[in-house]
Structure formats: structure tokens, C-alpha cells
Design brief:
The structure holds two protein chains of two kinds. By secondary structure, chain A is α+β, with helices and mostly antiparallel strands. In chain A, 56% of the residues lie in helices and 11% in strands. Chain A has five helices and four strands. By secondary structure, chain B is mainly beta. Chain B has four helices and 30 strands. Chain B folds into two domains: 171 residues, TolB, N-terminal domain (Rossmann fold, 3-Layer(aba) Sandwich), CATH 3.40.50.10070; 260 residues, TolB, C-terminal domain (Neuraminidase, 6 Propeller). In chain B, the strands form seven sheets. A six-stranded mixed β-sheet of chain B has the order 1-3-2-4-5-6. In chain B, strands 9-8-7-30 form a four-stranded antiparallel β-sheet, with no helix packed on it. In chain B, strands 10-11-12-13 form a four-stranded antiparallel β-sheet, with no helix packed on it. Chains A and B meet through α4 and β3 of A and β10 and β14 of B.
Chain lengths: 209, 446
């Protein structure tokens, strides 16, 4: 009878001890095939996760590189287009001797091109400078140059460009581009030149060109 | 023009100078540049030799050139040998002044002189004398004092020029134009040069681009246009102080072709602007009151020039198609045609300048594709062409109303040339890279 009581007490003590949260006895995990497989799976999963993280980093980098390449490419294209449009804007128109009227044909098509560019680039502002050949009175050529600049401005305004986007000035015969006293030089010097005064950093090509 | 008389003397033939009165030489109609003057109709002028010092020799040379350039005389030049010096000494051997000077009138007369001029040392070392002798009347006509100064100094040449002008006045009644200067543009800079071609100096600032100019009637100031980036401001430049200031109201827009009224009170000019190209004026005397004189609407008005009484302004307008010369009152009213033209036939006319005596205007007009110098009598409106070969433009009157400076391309480069309207004689004034837009000064007073 006493032995049973001691055993019962002993069991109860263990139970109480266990129930009271004392230091549990470590129970060595019993290896079993399911947990081995699970551990292996976990290991593979974590390798796969690491791999996936690496992959996504690489994809993101590649994406960034792709984006920046595309941006550079776009910037190069824009710069090339801006340069091309600037070239088109720099085209001069010429005049007959002692005349300031805009001539139909090549000169009006040059101006029409400028109209399209101005319409496609709303921040663009131009200055028109009128020039003369060396003949004619030096002082009168100042007046004639101004009339030539005004004529081009008027044509652009008549074709839809706001006046406030265009300024004019005269250089008379003071800035020839062609030296020489012959018809060819004189023809080249009788001109309007067009310069960008604002909005020329980035230009888009008008549609249809 | 000079004439060598040695051979003439040897052969015993005498070529007397004109006995005609120097004050009314004949006017040739239709005189062309390049055709020489009419000989034998002007008084003979002999510049006598004398004691040789740097100053006296220089003065004699400058004086002879001035008298030649006045185109009033046949200059009689002795052969170069100084052994034939016909000197008149106004001092004796001791240097003391001698009152009765021996003047060899009969010899001078035989040489063809009507007048003789001598540059002599004066009574003291501070002054010399320029003496003018009436050869036919065998008397001294005039004495002009010439201050003794360093012949290399700036003031010396002008002092001799003033003496030359008095000599001309003593003979003809009208002062000469030797004591004058011209402004002109070369390679974008404004230069000033004496009327005999000496003393060329730059007036505009280095780096600045100068354009048309005009003299102030006091001869010590000028107004010119300074260009920058399509605008032009008018600078009033003072030669004495060497400084300039901007005329208010001309800091903006393109302001060119200034002209000053004869009393110095007003400057009229052209404003080239987007709205219009018009004639404006500014009150220099009161330093205020910029106003527009012309209202072109659909035409340009430019290049004003004042009449000598200051009451009128001649100018260029495109209102009749092309450019032609019109005239208006100095306040802008009464605008009407001035130089007659045939519509559609007559070439463009530009750059008018009113003569200081009021009798003529000069301008250039295109004939067969080239500009040529014209003058027009303001009363009768009779127009006369003065040049015919090459490009000749931008004329400006000398104060005597008979000499003009203008730009000619006849040497291959545009230079300033001078023409005497009465005889047609021309001489080249500048030898620079390229000259344009000349302006002749009034007489430079002391």
C-alpha cells in the first residue's frame, strides 16, 4: 500500500511539476520520415526564395537599365529632332532688289514650314532680322531691312501665329553673309533671318513633316 | 592746279593770269567728274618763298595746298630750285622789322600772278605773318597773324588753315574752307580728318559700331549713331573733352541719320521701328521734348536735313513709290515735293543735304542702276547731275556751298572724294580700307 502511494505521489509530483511550468524536460525529437522530408522541403524552399529574390533584383536592375537606355535613346532622338527643327527654322527667305514683299513659291513654303513648327511648339518665340545688299543708300537700307522683317512677320501672323511671339529688327546692309559685288552675293544678302528668342531648348517636329 | 612756268619764261611767252574778278567765276552746266577745270579764268596766285625754318616751310606748304584746294586760283608754282626765291624779308639783318619791304610786283605780274602770298617771320619770335599782296594794284591787301607754335602740334595746322581762309576771303570776299574737318565711317568706326587729308583720328569707342553722323554748328561737337544688335542710339560727342552722352529717347529703337539745326537747338533724325520709319526731332537746347515730325502710314520718311535758316527740313519719303526728296516745315507741317521727278522713270533719290548758303540741296539719285551726285537749286527746282561714272553717293556740303564731299567707288574701294561744283575738279580725300557716310564740318573757330 505504501509503495503505491509513493508512486502515485511521485507521478502526481511529476504531473504537478509539469503542470506548474517548471523546466520541462527536453524531449529529444523522435526522427521520423515525415519531418525529414519537411525539413528538406523547407531547405529547398528557402534556397528557392533566395534565388527568387536574386532574380527579382536582377530583373529590376535590367528593367532600370532598359528604362535608362530608352530614356537616353529618346533624349538622343529628341535632340536630333530639335536640331533638325532648328535647322528648318534657320531657313532664310530672300527678296528682290529694293522690294520687301514676300514672294510666292519657295519663300512662302519656307514660311509655311515655320508656321507649322510654331504651331507645334507653343513656347517658341522668334526674332526676324531684315537685311539688304550693299547697293542703295546706307541709311535707306535700314528702313528697307525693317520693312522686309515686317513683311515676314505679317505673313506669319496672317497664317495664324500670334503677334506676341514674333519680334523684328533691321540690320540694313551691315551684316552681309556673302562678300562680293555681284548678283549672286547681292541675292544672298537680300534676306530675312530667323532666330529663336525663347522656347527652343526642345522642339518637336510638326506632324506631317 | 599748279603750272610750271620755267619753259614759258625761257621761251619768252607769257601766260597772264585772269584779270576777271575772282568773285564771279562762270558756272558750267552739266559738269562731269573727270573732265578738268576750265583753265585761264581764275586769278593767278603765287606763293612766295622766304626764310627757311621748319615752321615757315611747313606753313608755306600747307598754305599753298589750301589755296589750291580752294579751287579759286590758278596756283603759280616756281621751279623747285630755291635760287629763284623771290623772298620778301620783313626784318633786316639784325632781325629788326623793316617797314618798307620790296615787293617785286612787276615780276610777279609777268609770271601771271594777280595775287601773291608770303609767310614771313614776324616782329617777335611769338608771331609770324601771312601777307597778301594785290599784284595788279601793287599794294598789300591783308596781313594775317600766325602764332608761332610747334609745327608738329595739332593746333599748328589748323592755325595755318585759318590763315589760308583769311587769304581767300581777302581776295574773293568769301572765306575759304581749309579750317574744316570731315567725319566718316570706316570698318564700323567713326573717324575725323582735316579737310586737307591730315590728322585722321578715331572718334567712336573701340568695339562700338558707328553709323551716320553730323556736326554741331559750333564745330566742337558732333552727333552720331551707335549701333548694337539692331538698335541704334544717338551719341552727342564733345571733341574738346573727348566724351559723349546718349541723347535721351534714343536708347531704344534704331535711331540714325541725325542732323542739327543751324542754331544748334534741334536735332532731327530717323527712327527705324516696327510700327513705322519716321523723322523725329529732339530739343537739344532745352534737352527735352522728343517729338515725331512725320506720320507715314504706309510710307517711310527718313534722312532729314535742315535748311540754313532752320525753318525747313528736306527729307526722303517713299510715299510716291521709290524714294524721293520732299520738304516740310521744321515742325512737320506743309510736306510737299521738293526735287521733281517723273513717276516710274526717275531713279530713287536719297541722302539729301542742304547747302549752308541755302541755295542748293545735294542728293544722290540712281541713274542707269548706279547712284550719282545731283544738286538742285532750291528756288528754281532745277536739277543738275554732277557725276556720271561708277557709284557716287552720300554727298555733304562744305561751308562754302560750292565744295561737296561724297563717297565714290571709282578706285575699287569706297573712299571720300571732294568735288568743286563750279569747276568740276575732284580730289581723293581718304585712303582707308573702306569709307562711307561723310559729314563736312562748319568752319572750326579758334
Amino acid at each position: 500500500m505504501k509503495a503505491k502511494l509513493v508512486a502515485a505521489l511521485g507521478i502526481a509530483a511529476v504531473v504537478v511539476a509539469a503542470a506548474c511550468g517548471g523546466q520541462p524536460e527536453e524531449v529529444a525529437p523522435q526522427p521520423d520520415p515525415d519531418s525529414i522530408a519537411r525539413a528538406e522541403q523547407d531547405r529547398l524552399d528557402s534556397i528557392a526564395r533566395a534565388q527568387a529574390i536574386q532574380d527579382s533584383i536582377r530583373r529590376a536592375q535590367a528593367e532600370q537599365e532598359r528604362i535608362s537606355r530608352e530614356r537616353e535613346e529618346a533624349a538622343r532622338r529628341e535632340a536630333a529632332i530639335t536640331a533638325e527643327v532648328r535647322q528648318m527654322l534657320a531657313g532664310v527667305i530672300n527678296f528682290e532688289f529694293d522690294k520687301s514683299n514676300v514672294r510666292e513659291g519657295h519663300d512662302t513654303s519656307v514660311l509655311q514650314q515655320k508656321v507649322s513648327i510654331l504651331q507645334a511648339n507653343s513656347a517658341l518665340r522668334l526674332e526676324i532680322a531684315g537685311h539688304c545688299d550693299e547697293r542703295g543708300s546706307d541709311e535707306y537700307n535700314m528702313a528697307l531691312g525693317m520693312r522686309r522683317a515686317n513683311a515676314a512677320k505679317q505673313w506669319l501672323v496672317d497664317h495664324g501665329i500670334s503677334e506676341s511671339r514674333l519680334t523684328v529688327r533691321s540690320m540694313g546692309e551691315e551684316r552681309p553673309t556673302a562678300m562680293g559685288s555681284n548678283e549672286d552675293a547681292w541675292e544672298q544678302n537680300r534676306r530675312d533671318e530667323f532666330a529663336i528668342t525663347a522656347g527652343g531648348d526642345r522642339l518637336v517636329m510638326p506632324s506631317g513633316m | 592746279m599748279t603750272r610750271r612756268l620755267a619753259l614759258v619764261l625761257l621761251s619768252g611767252l607769257l601766260l597772264p593770269g585772269s584779270l576777271a574778278h575772282a568773285q564771279d567765276p562762270p558756272i558750267e552746266q552739266g559738269v562731269r567728274i573727270g573732265i578738268t577745270y576750265t583753265p585761264g579764268l581764275r586769278p593767278g596766285m603765287l606763293v612766295l618763298g622766304g626764310p627757311h625754318t621748319e615752321l615757315l616751310d611747313s606753313a608755306r606748304a600747307i598754305l599753298q595746298r589750301d589755296l589750291d584746294y580752294s579751287d579759286h586760283f590758278e596756283i603759280i608754282a616756281l621751279p623747285s630750285s630755291d635760287d629763284l626765291v623771290l623772298g620778301i624779308t620783313a626784318t633786316d639783318d639784325a632781325g629788326a622789322p623793316v617797314d618798307d619791304v620790296y615787293v617785286n610786283y612787276s615780276l610777279y605780274s609777268a609770271l601771271g600772278a594777280d595775287y601773291a602770298v608770303a609767310v614771313l617771320p614776324g616782329a617777335d619770335s611769338l608771331e609770324h605773318v601771312v601777307a597778301v599782296y594785290d599784284v595788279k594794284g601793287e599794294s598789300e591787301r591783308r596781313r594775317v597773324r600766325l602764332a608761332a607754335m610747334d609745327p608738329l602740334s595739332q593746333e599748328f595746322r589748323m592755325a595755318v588753315h585759318r590763315a589760308s581762309d583769311v587769304v581767300v576771303e581777302a581776295v574773293t570776299g568769301v572765306p575759304g574752307i581749309a579750317a574744316t574737318r570731315l567725319l566718316f565711317i570706316s570698318r564700323g568706326s567713326l573717324y575725323r580728318i582735316d579737310a586737307d587729308g591730315a590728322n585722321q583720328i578715331q572718334v567712336s569707342q573701340p568695339g562700338a559700331t558707328a553709323f551716320s553722323s553730323t556736326w554741331h554748328p559750333d564745330g566742337t561737337r558732333a552727333v552720331y549713331s551707335e549701333l548694337e544688335q539692331g538698335w541704334g542710339k544717338l551719341i552727342l560727342h564733345d571733341f574738346i573733352s573727348g566724351t559723349g552722352r546718349v541723347i535721351p529717347g534714343t536708347e531704344e529703337q534704331l535711331n540714325i541719320s541725325p542732323t542739327i539745326s543751324p542754331d544748334g537747338g534741334m536735332v532731327a533724325f530717323t527712327r527705324i521701328a516696327e510700327e513705322a520709319n519716321e523723322v523725329y526731332r529732339y530739343n537739344l537746347a532745352r534737352d527735352c521734348c522728343l517729338e515725331r515730325l512725320t506720320v507715314g502710314r504706309f510710307s517711310d520718311n527718313l534722312s532729314p536735313t535742315f535748311s540754313p535758316d532752320g525753318r525747313q527740313i528736306a527729307f526722303v519719303t517713299t510715299r510716291a513709290g521709290g524714294t524721293q526728296i520732299y520738304v516740310m516745315s521744321a515742325d512737320g507741317t506743309g510736306q510737299e515735293l521738293f526735287a521733281p521727278f517723273d513717276y516710274g522713270v526717275t531713279g530713287n533719290s536719297n541722302a539729301p543735304d542742304w547747302s549752308p548758303d541755302g541755295i542748293n540741296i545735294t542728293f544722290h539719285r540712281v541713274v542707269a542702276g548706279s547712284p550719282q551726285i545731283f544738286i538742285m537749286e532750291t528756288r528754281s527746282r532745277v536739277v543738275q547731275q554732277l557725276s556720271s561714272a561708277g557709284r557716287n553717293e552720300d554727298p555733304t556740303w562744305a561751308p562754302d556751298g560750292r565744295h561737296l564731299a561724297f563717297i565714290s567707288g571709282r578706285t575699287g574701294r569706297r573712299q571720300v572724294w571732294v568735288i568743286d561744283v563750279e569747276t568740276g575738279r575732284v580730289r581723293q580725300l581718304t585712303r582707308v580700307g573702306e569709307a562711307r557716310l561723310p559729314a563736312w564740318s562748319p568752319r572750326i573757330r579758334e
